[in-house]
Amino acid sequence: MAAPTMDRNTGTSVPKTQKVTIGKALNLGLRAAMDADPKVVVLGEDVGKLGGVFRVTDGLQKDFGEQRVIDTPLAESGIIGTAIGLALRGYRPVAEIQFDGFIFPGFDQIVSQLAKLHYRSRGQIRMPVVVRVPFGGGIGAVEHHSESPESYFAHTAGLKVVACSNPVDAYWMIQQAIQSDDPVLFFEPKQRYHEKAELDTTVTPGPLFASRVLRTGSTVTVACYGPTVKTCLEAATAAAEEGLELEVVDLRSLSPLDLGPVFESVRRTGRLVLVSEAPPEASITSEITTRVQEECFYSLEAPILRVTGFDTPYPASKLEDDFLPDLDRVLHAVERSLGW
Fold first, then answer.
1. Is 332 tagged catalytic?
2. For the purposes of burial, counting CB atoms within 10 Å of the CB of 248, is it exposed (0-12), middle (13-18) or buried (19 or more)?
3. Quick check: 252 and 169 in contact, CB under 8 A?
4. What's the pTM value of the predicted model, to 2 decimals?
């Protein structure tokens, strides 16, 4: 893992422990990866001079130069295709998709080329490409700016798919994703970019493709990822006031899924509520529902319930509060589960 970076403006080392936002943690993680490996390059729309629309790449072009932080045309297919070419030449490109809804012009390059080249070459070609994608709603954006497309990519063999939910994971997971020899779709919860937490850059992080129990409990298991993790932790706090102990599992890795902690938890609680902003049909939550039923059928005391977006296009910003899972909907699902 990369060592803590230097502040190139002041010449001083970045503090080992500091309170940062998810956006700043991603910036620090990218800096650490670029410091550690000159083959790491960043490319995307406005990632250079502007520093990214969410400022995640702020200052990287100034510090690492235009050859390693590349402003591209507004052409997502070209961005992914360029990243594939760079990987073929030995680089570790990190491509930024400015908003989730704009990834689809690059969809063919991702699922038809990036995902398959390792298999197609019988293992001779590696594709160490990271595609960063701000995803989900909650920022009052217009059409195409608040999608949850993660299930499309989790469905595609050859791709790894992860989602961070807090600054600590953001810092470590982006570096681990860059070190992966497989292509990684890296989803960042855009409504949580400004959430802060204490970050220690000296700890040894856990594995990238692993879920994590964030809060233990014995009443109901709640599994979630990305932007809904904070919502579920708040629901657990509210439920505790009623004497209910929710066990909250942050899935973190969506492909491969690490469901061991979920299975173990459900075998103790007998109940599972899945929370995601994505529409429920043919989704991450429907896959987990099937696998938990297969593995934990005789432990279940109630049907597996889901709190998700809806099977509709993402609504206009004034209606997104009615679309997104919130604390009340999570607690209602817990209540329904306990009612069986």
1. no
2. buried
3. yes
4. 0.95
